[in-house]
């Protein structure tokens, strides 16, 4: 059993053992249900201290030239890459995701975003604009850092989320207080230490620990200027409501129930590969999962046959093994939640179960007998009004819906309050584009699923979010504009000059 030293609120450049709150909780390895680390939840005093440490560091960091900030961040990128496997093992332990995934996706895509923003600010990404208003006057607009910002993370991509938030935040000259999910907190201290080793001044990146109460305290704190949140829609509503009441900036990266539309000219193999990536990668715990798979009715037999065949390639096994591609659910609570959705699908929705169910996967190694493992599951012939079709399950549960016309599929795909992602698979690229044009979602794919490179701005429509992460637009979410009009005519324009008749008095 792997275990780590206790975790304490990290601020002013180090973990603060003394003064840290006395409430503790455990980080659990979901593959075995064994605890791996004791975390000391941050008390209000700890959070105040972390925010003060960020506020103290902000003036100097924000006035450090972007090129110098960039050098620090690039050193952190090099450290992240050098320690990729060590960090990936931590993520595997905390999330239960196979090492084959955490070592190729989680740390890599986080480091990529940090590198992207470091390079962007070093090459004019924070430049403002200026223009001549008239011969005697100029306007210039500068992009100014916001101040102390809060990052609140979900548990599914812990270090990636921490980097997707802290990279543009710090690049723009802000300081951050970051709260990882209480379910997967291990990465946070490693990241804080890497930033420090890279030369980030003390106080620019701080970590607080705990559950919703810690997040809520951060969100309301008067010094915090912005909250960047990743999590469920229901929590996001609370966080956005509370932040908006204090006129704070927000970025909200929330849940989805995304549609995959398979067109009738699509090779069935491709359609199935896409649908599987959209449902079983990360054991289905991906916000952009395409869990509503719309398939032409004419393709039913071949799609299901190919899907069942390819599901044999979902490999449960030693999470450190290079061929293992499926892990447990992240926590007991989440396991119970996903299982209850599957049970509901069978008992109440009466959807047709063609694979999986509420049991543990076959061939589960004996060391994982107590972990939170659930079979990959497929329901077919689903109807739009079923609960398993309408609500985000966030587990390895695919629902297949058959359609007769593309117009009908698009209409049904859009019939949701959520709008995170969507995708289409087909041969005729014009048809694919036309479907994408009509789908209501912020992140869309054609003939692929899930890739989210640093250069691509991503964010949800409708209840799935506010603002974007990554890409050039992602940086704009961490600055505020300051526009200045400079009059150079030599006289100050005024309406209070003496009138001629007043001069004669
Ligand atoms: P969650 O909403 O339960 O928790 C997210 C974070 O919010 C945690 O750190 C939690 O402690 C904190 N929190 C809880 N109550 C709070 C409050 N009142 N004020 C402030 N913070 C509070 O979400 P989760 O279960 O950890 O994550 C899964 C969800 O995240 C899914 O819905 C998934 O779709 C979504 N997600 C979205 C994206 C995206 O980019 N759109 C990415 C990953 C995950």
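Q: What amino acid sequence fits the structure above?
A:
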């Amino acid at each position: 059993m792997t275990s780590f030293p206790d975790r304490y609120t990290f601020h002013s450049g180090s973990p603060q053992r003394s003064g840290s709150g006395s409430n503790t909780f455990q980080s659990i390895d979901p593959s075995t249900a064994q605890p791996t680390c004791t975390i000391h939840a941050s008390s209000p005093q700890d959070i105040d201290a972390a925010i003060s440490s960020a506020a103290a560091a902000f003036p100097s960091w924000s006035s450090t030239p972007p090129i110098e900030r960039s050098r620090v961040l690039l050193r952190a990128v090099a450290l992240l890459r050098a320690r990729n496997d060590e960090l990936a093992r931590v993520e595997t332990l905390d999330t239960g995701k196979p090492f084959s995934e955490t070592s190729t996706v989680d740390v890599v895509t986080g480091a990529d975003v940090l590198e992207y923003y470091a390079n962007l600010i070093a090459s004019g990404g924070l430049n403002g604009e200026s223009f001549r208003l008239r011969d005697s006057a100029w306007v210039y607009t500068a992009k100014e850092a916001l101040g102390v910002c809060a990052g609140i993370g979900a548990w599914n991509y812990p270090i990636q989320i921490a980097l997707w938030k802290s990279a543009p935040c710090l690049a723009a000259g802000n300081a951050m207080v970051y709260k990882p999910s209480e379910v997967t907190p291990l990465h946070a201290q490693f990241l804080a230490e890497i930033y420090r080793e890279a030369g980030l001044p003390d106080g620019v990146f701080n970590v607080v620990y705990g559950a919703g109460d810690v997040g809520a305290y951060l969100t309301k704190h008067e010094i915090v200027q912005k909250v960047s949140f990743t999590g469920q829609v229901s929590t996001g509503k609370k966080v956005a409501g509370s932040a908006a009441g204090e006129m704070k900036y927000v970025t909200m990266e929330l849940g989805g129930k995304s549609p995959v539309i398979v067109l009738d000219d699509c090779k069935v193999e491709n359609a199935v590969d896409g649908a599987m990536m959209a449902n079983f990668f990360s054991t289905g715990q991906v916000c952009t999962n395409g869990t509503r798979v719309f398939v032409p009715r004419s393709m039913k037999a071949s799609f299901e046959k190919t899907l069942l065949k390819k599901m044999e390639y979902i490999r449960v096994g030693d999470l450190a093994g290079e061929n293992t591609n499926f892990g447990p659910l992240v926590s007991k609570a989440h396991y119970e939640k996903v299982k209850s959705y599957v049970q509901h699908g069978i008992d109440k929705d009466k959807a047709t179960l063609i694979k999986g169910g509420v049991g543990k996967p076959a061939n589960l190694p004996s060391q994982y007998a107590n972990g939170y493992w659930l079979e990959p599951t497929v329901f077919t012939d689903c109807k739009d009004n079923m609960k398993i079709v309408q609500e985000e399950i966030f587990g390895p549960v695919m629902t297949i819906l058959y359609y007769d016309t593309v117009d009908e599929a698009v209409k049904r795909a859009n019939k949701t309050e959520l709008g995170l992602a969507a995708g289409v698979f087909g041969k005729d690229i014009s048809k694919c584009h036309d479907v994408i044009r009509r789908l209501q979602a912020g992140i869309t794919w054609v003939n692929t699923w899930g890739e989210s490179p640093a250069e691509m701005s991503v964010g949800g429509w409708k209840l799935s979010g506010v603002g974007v992460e990554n890409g050039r637009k992602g940086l704009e979410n961490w600055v505020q504009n300051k526009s200045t009009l400079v009059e150079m005519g030599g006289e100050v324009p005024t309406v209070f000059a003496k009138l001629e008749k007043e001069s004669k008095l």
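Q: And what stands out in the fold?
A: The first helix runs from residue 44 to 62.
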